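Good morning,

Attaching, inline, the backbone tokens for the sequence recovery test we're adding to the shared suite. The designed sequence is right after.
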């Protein structure tokens, strides 16, 4: 089982709205703080140097606000033109240059020009003495962009740069690291940072995010570590109860060989109407068969076929027939097997049909089905098919034909002994039949009279 086929997971941020929240938040918050005091004058040289680094003049601030309005209105041509004009100004502070590149990156992102956006954000990071908050937010944004263009190696390197400048990385930063490893299919390396992020949330009394647990589950799935995957799914069911997770849990029990728990969960979901469709119903029917409940399997399959939820293809019809046959309902096993044999034209299906007819002692139908199966061919055991054919013929008193069928079966050493016994029995029946069918020689009337006279006592004639 494949419990799952592996799909691409949702990127850390997706959609323009999420990016607008991140990017515009970084820009507008920082600008609004600086607007309150655009010019600084301090006596301490060191402190003056630091604060002047983040100072922004009123004209630059107003120009950035004007450009941002153009970007939000999607007037990107004019926005980029004004960005270039602003960048050409002399004596821009490093912080002003950083914010201009920041807005340029945001504009390029909205145009889905991700390479240009990445280049702009790299230029933000090249500016000296960046405020810590801007440096960290830019690295996080840059990592997200590398995820977007599927350059997971650079995404990983960017996250590592981010962690190097953050004293205590937050849970979402650890998740970015885990996602980078995951996308590079380094599942062993992905698990620790993902688990760290989850544990950090728990320590804070917060519920771990659902998609974090899902990512951890997929890592364990890829590593075929089903016991650990089981623990993650149980946590998902506890925190985010969904029938799909219960069904996944049933699949894990299957991988662990605990098909009894798999059956119990799958049956419960089916009876409550939480699962439907071909694959789940057929899977449940197979579980019924596996645990010796063929009647349940048959009634389930028949119900779903009648409802149109399961197609009447060869595979499903054969399963239905097998279920009825195992439940010793030979009469019910025949119709689906007839359909399957007619559709599939498989020799083996005709032989199974012959077996059901033999069980019902319908010798003619059994012989016809066996003959068709032998004619179509590609049988697992042609010798067994000939034995069945011979039995059906024998019970119709077609002894010579039956003998030939048993002779054909005897060519296979696996049926040599059984075929020899049947042939011996058939030969005795042929001799008995021939003896009973022998005719006495006809006698003329004169000969009869003489025989009668010879056997009449003397005193009987007087």
């Amino acid at each position: 089982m494949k419990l799952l086929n592996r799909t691409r997971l949702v990127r850390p941020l997706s959609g323009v709205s999420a990016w607008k929240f991140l990017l515009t938040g970084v820009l507008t918050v920082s600008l609004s703080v600086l607007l309150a005091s655009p010019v600084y004058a301090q006596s301490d040289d060191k402190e003056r140097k630091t604060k002047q680094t983040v100072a922004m003049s009123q004209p630059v601030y107003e120009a950035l606000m004007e450009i941002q309005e153009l970007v939000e209105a999607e007037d990107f041509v004019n926005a980029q033109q004004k960005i270039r004009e602003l960048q050409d100004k002399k004596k821009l502070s490093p912080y002003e240059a950083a914010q201009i590149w920041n807005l340029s990156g945001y504009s390029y992102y909205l145009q889905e020009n991700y390479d240009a956006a990445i280049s702009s954000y790299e230029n933000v990071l090249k500016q000296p003495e960046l405020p810590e908050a801007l440096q960290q937010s830019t690295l996080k944004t840059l990592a997200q962009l590398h995820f977007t263009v599927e350059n997971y190696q650079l995404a990983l390197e960017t996250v590592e740069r981010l962690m190097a400048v953050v004293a205590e990385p937050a849970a979402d930063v650890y998740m970015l690291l885990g996602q980078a490893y995951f996308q590079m299919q380094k599942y062993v390396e992905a698990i620790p940072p993902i688990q760290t992020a989850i544990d950090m949330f728990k320590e804070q009394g917060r519920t771990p995010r659902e998609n974090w647990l899902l990512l951890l589950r997929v890592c364990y799935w890829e590593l075929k570590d089903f016991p650990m995957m089981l623990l993650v799914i149980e946590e998902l069911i506890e925190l985010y109860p969904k029938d799909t997770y219960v069904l996944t849990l049933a699949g894990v029990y299957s991988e662990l060989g605990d098909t009894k728990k798999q059956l119990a969960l799958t049956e419960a979901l089916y009876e409550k109407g939480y699962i439907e469709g071909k694959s789940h119903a057929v899977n449940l029917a197979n579980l019924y068969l596996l645990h010796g409940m063929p009647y349940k399997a048959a009634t389930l399959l028949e119900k779903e076929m009648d409802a149109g939820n399961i197609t009447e293809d060869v595979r499903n019809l054969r399963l239905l027939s097998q279920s009825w046959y195992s439940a010793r309902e030979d009469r019910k096993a025949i119709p689906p097997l007839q359909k399957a044999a007619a559709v599939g034209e498989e020799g083996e299906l005709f032989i199974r049909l012959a077996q059901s007819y033999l069980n019902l002692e319908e010798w003619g139908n059994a012989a016809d089905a066996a003959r068709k199966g032998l004619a179509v061919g590609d049988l697992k055991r042609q010798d067994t098919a000939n034995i069945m054919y011979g039995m059906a013929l024998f019970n119709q008193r077609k002894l010579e034909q039956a003998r030939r069928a048993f002779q054909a079966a005897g060519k296979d050493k696996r049926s040599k002994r059984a075929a020899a016994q049947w042939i011996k029995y058939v030969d005795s029946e042929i001799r008995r039949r021939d003896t009973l069918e022998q005719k006495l020689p006809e006698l003329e009337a004169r000969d009869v009279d003489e025989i009668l006279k010879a056997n009449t006592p003397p005193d009987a004639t007087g």
